[in-house]
Design a protein that fits this description.
The chain has helices at 2-12, 33-37, 51-54, 78-87, 90-104, 122-128, 132-144, 167-174, 203-212; strands spanning 64-70, 114-117, 153-155, 178-180, 191-199, 219-227. The chain is of the alpha/beta class and 228 residues long. Strand 5 (191-199), helix 9 and strand 6 (219-227) form a beta-alpha-beta unit. The radius of gyration is 18 Å and the shape is globular. The N and C termini lie far apart (45 Å). The structure holds zinc ion. Zinc ion binds next to helix 2.
Length: 228
């Protein structure tokens, strides 16, 4: 009986793969199996000198930095992050977080004590209704069993969001953007895993890392769903 209902639902409201546009046979799928298999995985997990890690060289200290997949401009896979960010598709965020978490299992990342999503500007979060990095972090957490901590690292509401600035100006602008609230949690001598949706220049993550490194004995790991 359940199959009949599913078949009927699929017939009436077919679900299409957001990457290739073909109808999906299984309703709970987020993208089709073929597109999941063909995802342009970065394969950076065991490579300490991968291009994402190199973004931080000479700028700040991270233990390891990786991305799950990489996309070129106009890639159909870029759409997955758009669906989360601009269409509020949280199921997509959890799915991408789970893929990232599965990739991190069995690696050095597993020893992290907390997962910290990169905070969104409070105004932006209010407008959007959610922080996409937090949704992804929840997916990572579900797979890795590491708790997500959202209050510790926060974004100062007085700072402007960045638009049309050079990398240096952006960094200057970012310098005091993030703050630490250690009232409820002691993160000294802990390893933390910073999560973001996508890394491009790395300025935002760099500013987060710099803020976190003010804590005694902290080790910072970085993982993003995608790198561009
Ligand atoms: Zn597909």
């Amino acid at each position: 009986m359940r199959h009949v209902i599913f078949d009927l639902l699929n017939f009436l409201f077919p679900m299409y793969c957001p990457v290739c546009g073909t109808p999906m046979a299984i309703r709970k799928q987020v993208i089709c199996l073929s597109c999941e298999l063909k995802m342009p995985r970065a394969g950076y997990i065991d490579d300490a000198e991968n291009p994402v890690a190199q973004l931080f060289w000479g700028r700040t200290k991270v233990e390891l930095a990786v991305s799950f997949f990489r996309f070129e401009k106009g890639s159909k896979y870029q759409k997955l992050l758009h669906l989360l960010k601009y269409k509020g598709d949280k199921r997509m965020g959890i799915f991408l977080g789970q893929l990232l978490g599965a990739e991190l299992l069995g690696s050095e990342f597993e020893q992290c004590d907390y997962i910290l999503p990169v905070p969104l500007h409070p105004k932006k979060q209010k407008k959007r209704g959610f922080n996409q990095s937090e949704i992804i972090a929840n997916g990572v957490s579900a797979v890795m069993g590491i708790p997500v901590e959202t209050d510790f690292l926060y974004r100062d509401s007085d700072t402007d969001t960045q638009t049309r600035k050079s990398r240096f100006e952006r960094f200057q602008n970012m310098e005091n953007v993030f703050k630490i609230n250690s009232l409820n949690i002691d993160i000294e001598n802990c390893s933390v895993l910073l999560i973001d949706d996508v890394i491009t220049t790395g300025s935002t993550l760099e500013a987060c890392v710099e803020t976190l490194l003010k804590q005694e004995g902290i080790k910072v790991y970085v993982a993003t769903v995608a790198c561009a």
